[in-house]
Amino acid sequence: MGRAIGVFDSGVGGLTVLRAIREKLPHEATVYLGDTARVPYGSKSPEVVARYSLNNARFLLQHDLKLLVVACNTATAHALPALQAALTVPVIGVVEPGAQVAAALTRNGRIGVIGTAGTIASGAYQRALEAAAPGATVFASACPLFVPLAEEGWTSGDLPRAVAERYLGALRGSVDTLVLGCTHYPLLRGAIAEVMGPGVTLVDSAQATAAAVAERLAASGDRETGGDPSHLLYVTDIPAQFPSIAEAFLGSRPEHVEQVDV
Amino acid sequence: MGRAIGVFDSGVGGLTVLRAIREKLPHEATVYLGDTARVPYGSKSPEVVARYSLNNARFLLQHDLKLLVVACNTATAHALPALQAALTVPVIGVVEPGAQVAAALTRNGRIGVIGTAGTIASGAYQRALEAAAPGATVFASACPLFVPLAEEGWTSGDLPRAVAERYLGALRGSVDTLVLGCTHYPLLRGAIAEVMGPGVTLVDSAQATAAAVAERLAASGDRETGGDPSHLLYVTDIPAQFPSIAEAFLGSRPEHVEQVDV
């Protein structure tokens, strides 16, 4: 394989980012690492998250990478500067691209962001939004049931809509733009869109990150424009439900999955 | 304070066990430790869970304990024998008492058990049920949304009932007894009972554990029969929502909460 885009996450959620990258950049080879043995990162200390992130990056750099994507909100919040300092390849996280897109799309400067309790408590999106859209009013809300809903595959019908209504009902009238600040949430996009209504623009961090990757590669002249690339998928543990969950997140059955120690 | 009952859990769930113990044994002093900084244990290796469990036990043993309760299914599955071997006080876990009660109550030998994905995958309840009720047929099912539902306080109404229907609908006709094999589930007892119907007996592990503690103290002559005991509550981290969650799990506002390193 030629030089690849490396992507890591604490688990399966980052597969939505991988999917967006593969759709946007169909000629790029990719290598993904899901640290499923140590998931979740959200409840771990910043120091531990930074150490695990460096482990993951070093594992991926055994392949010839042109760029590394941190497809995990917690790892982006706690380890992006450390990774950028330690590595010679460009490193892109998931927080800033979503914040930039939201800042560009809002009309009234009232932006919402939803994520896990850990991501919202870290304040990473709130800071990125305030930097990208100075003077904007930011509403942040944690939605703890969305991750297990997505992992169960309960993404359409009454149940996810009822959960979304409970979390988002109060936000509906307050914002014109809502950032999906968790890699699991694209699976619930339909239910979230129904509850927020047509007046609210949803910003998918995965899509925004893929766009940022495409821009970066175009700027450095590193973008592949032809060929049928290879895609490798590594995980640190293979839970029983992994194949079906991975397929739901990736949109297709993964071609190659290997369990590794990092 | 006199000799107390020590209780530890990976987080807040064990407060349902503490509550059952305090209701059943109102004259006993208690000391609780919730390892909220390192929660959840379910995604950690058995070796790490055993090490953390020994840490927790040693912290509690700085108090004068008459008995230690492991109010965490994962810690019971991975560390109970190690704790019993290492400590001189009696140690009671949450798995065996629930299995014993279910074995005594089933009429047709068809017993269900529900818990987190980690507890069900560990097989601890299945083994305990097969030992307590030889020849019984055991149905085990993981219910990942129940913990976040309980922690959100969404315990009554349409939403928990719809989630319970989705998890338990298929189990309804198969069992006459169902073990609530997770310390969070007593909060959802109403929704679970409605979905399972009046023909199914629910076994609350917290109640069963409290009964086992009472029996053990009675047998050794260590039971307090009078006095107004003190109750101490320690946690390794105090998350923002801790006071309201703790109140929901404990049934009353905790008198004393202190953050400690263990």
From TrEMBL, chains A, B:
| EC code(s) of this entry | 5.1.1.3
Which keywords appear in this protein's UniProt record, sorted alphabetically?
Answer: Cell shape, Cell wall biogenesis/degradation, Isomerase, Peptidoglycan synthesis
Keyword Transport among UniProt keywords: no
Q: Which positions bind substrate? A: 9-10, 41-42, 73-74, 183-184
Q: What is the lineage of its organism?
A: Bacteria, Pseudomonadati, Myxococcota, Myxococcia, Myxococcales
In this record, what's one Pfam family? Asp_Glu_race
Q: Which family does this protein fall into? A: Belongs to the aspartate/glutamate racemases family.
This protein's source sits in the domain of life called: Bacteria
What is this enzyme's catalytic activity, as reactions? Answer: L-glutamate = D-glutamate
- Which GO terms label this protein's molecular function in UniProt? glutamate racemase activity
> Which pathway?
Cell wall biogenesis; peptidoglycan biosynthesis
* Name of the protein: Glutamate racemase
Gene Ontology BP terms: cell wall organization; peptidoglycan biosynthetic process; regulation of cell shape
According to its UniProt entry, what is the function of this protein? Provides the (R)-glutamate required for cell wall biosynthesis.
Enzyme class, UniProt record, top EC level: isomerase
* Active site feature: 72, 182
